[in-house]
Amino acid sequence: MNFLNRFLFLASTLFFCVNLQAQTNTTTIKDALLIAAHNKSKLENSEQLLVVYNYQPESYSAFFVALEKKDNRWIVKQEPVQVCIGKNGFATQLNKREGDGKSPTGIFRLGKLYTYEKQLNTLLENQQTTAEDKWIDDSNSEDYNRFVKGATNAKSYENLLLKTDAYKYCMVIEYNTNPIIKGKGSAIFFHLAVKKSSFTAGCVAIDEENMKLMVSWLDPKRNPTIIMGNFNVLKSGL
Fold first, then answer.
1. Is 76 within 8 Å of 65 (Cβ atoms)?
2. Spatial CB neighbours of 134, under 8 Å, sequence gap ≥ 6
3. CA distance 111 to 226
4. What is the sign, positive or negative, of the torsion defined by CA atoms of 162, 176, 195, 34?
5. C-alpha–C-alpha distance, residues 131 and 114, integer Å
6. DSSP per position, 177-206
7. Other residues' Cβ atoms within 10 Å of the Cβ of residue 194
8. Closest Cα to residue 238, out of 65, 96, 38?
């Protein structure tokens, strides 16, 4: 293949890839807006929405689209990206169990942010984490699915200060928090993905660049919310 032919081949391949990505983004946005529209009645009080969905319920790879409400219409705030969810995909709230490796399906408030950082550009309620900070995942503990600082009698828990950056930004997804039902799942967070194409134990994990954008954008006064689940489930309305 001579230089000109090689150049034309590479150019056409690049054009194809860019065009394919654009088509994927268009479809992803369209489906995210469809999910928001079909759950309109349950999202009336929210002005910031994170949409997380997959097409195969068992897949741990999902799409993420950030939407904001303007003039009572949802518009795209952040271009779609891929995120990691539970290694076994999504579970319905009825079937969700502690330790099942699945992310819960539903509409949840986004709560407090735990972070390794001392200072942040954020409006979110936040707390710098220390080695004393834990989130209890022992189903038999009276502190199940709660934050605890210091000593605990719980047999198992998540340390919120890790040796990795996974919890450098760790936002609580308010699943099974009010009321708390023993054994229905705990420690569901929106946190950093430390590896590409990986999975979580049930959380939603995103790259650091996009996490920082979310941390600086989300505003408690606008009732930030996350809707997550399989596309076919979410588009039917929860």
1. yes
2. 147, 148, 149, 152, 154, 157, 158, 159, 160
3. 10
4. negative
5. 12
6. -SS--TTS----EEEE-SSTT--BSS-EEE
7. 16
8. 38
SS (H, E, C) 210-227: HHHHHHHHCCHHHCCEEE
* pTM exceeds 0.70: yes
Pairwise CA distance, residues 48 & 175, whole Å? 18
Residue 170 token pair: 């760790």
In terms of phi and psi (left: phi > 0; alpha: psi -120 to 50; beta: otherwise), the region of 150 is left
pLDDT in tens, the chain (238 residues): 444 455 444 444 344 333 434 456 889 999 999 999 999 999 999 999 999 999 999 999 999 999 999 999 999 998 899 999 999 999 988 999 999 999 999 999 999 999 999 989 999 999 999 999 999 999 999 999 999 999 999 999 999 999 999 999 999 999 999 999 999 999 999 999 998 778 999 999 999 999 999 999 999 999 999 999 999 999 999 9
Distance CA 134, CA 237 (A): 35
CA angle 208, 46, 118 (to 5 degrees): 35
Amino acid at site 232: N
